[in-house]
Amino acid sequence: MTEPGELTHINMWGKYCISSINRNQYYVVFVDDHGQFTSLDFTKLKEQAIQSVKNYITCLKTLMLVELARAMINAHELPEFLWELAIAHVAYLRNRAFTSPLGGYTPYKIWHNNKPNVAHLGEFGAPVWILHQGQANN
């Protein structure tokens, strides 16, 4: 069985002879192979299907970031207002993770043409101590 977002079947339907109430005459259907979840996008022109696919892919990527961020926040029982930092951390990690479509390279390697340094990475939500510079210990 596939993972959510891993394999999507895409089909376009139209041209319907009567425009819809929103003046659309086509629709693009996206069926995720995992669980058969169905998404739709309605378009006025056939040529808009390409943008529909781009939007769907962007939505999948964003949804995956949010799900991972929520998991990190929940795993450490952190306050929800840290969502921005969690999403930034997920994006940072994804750019440094190997991915099959890139032939085993990381997005960072492709973008910057050098191997990312991950030695500094720690677990999200791990306790930290802040040292104020110039503060004397009494």
Order of helices and strands: EEEHHH
Alpha-carbon distance between the termini? Answer: 60 Å
What is the radius of gyration? Answer: 22 Å
Q: Can you count the helices?
A: 3
Shape: elongated
* Major sheet size, sense and barrel closure: 3 strands, antiparallel
Domains, number: 1
Low-confidence stretches: none
Helix-strand makeup class:
alpha+beta
| Strand content bin | 5-15%
Q: Strands of the biggest beta sheet: in what spatial order?
A: 1-2-3
How many E-type strands?
3
Mean pLDDT: 87
Provide the helix percentage: 25-40%
Q: Topology of this protein?
A:
Blueprint: E1 8-14, E2 26-32, E3 38-43, H1 49-75, H2 83-95, H3 107-112
Antiparallel strand pairs: 1-2, 2-3
Q: What does the model show?
A:
The chain is α+β, with helices and mostly antiparallel strands and 138 residues long. It has one domain (8-112). Helices cover 33% and strands 14% of the residues. The protein contains three helices and three strands. It has helices spanning 49-75, 83-95, 107-112, and strands at residues 8-14, 26-32, 38-43. A three-stranded antiparallel sheet has the order 1-2-3, covered by helices on one side. Strand 2 (26-32) and strand 3 (38-43) form a beta hairpin. Helix 1 (49-75) packs across helix 2 (83-95). The chain is elongated. It starts with 7 loop residues before the first strand and ends in a 26-residue tail after the last helix. The model has no long low-confidence stretch (mean pLDDT 87).
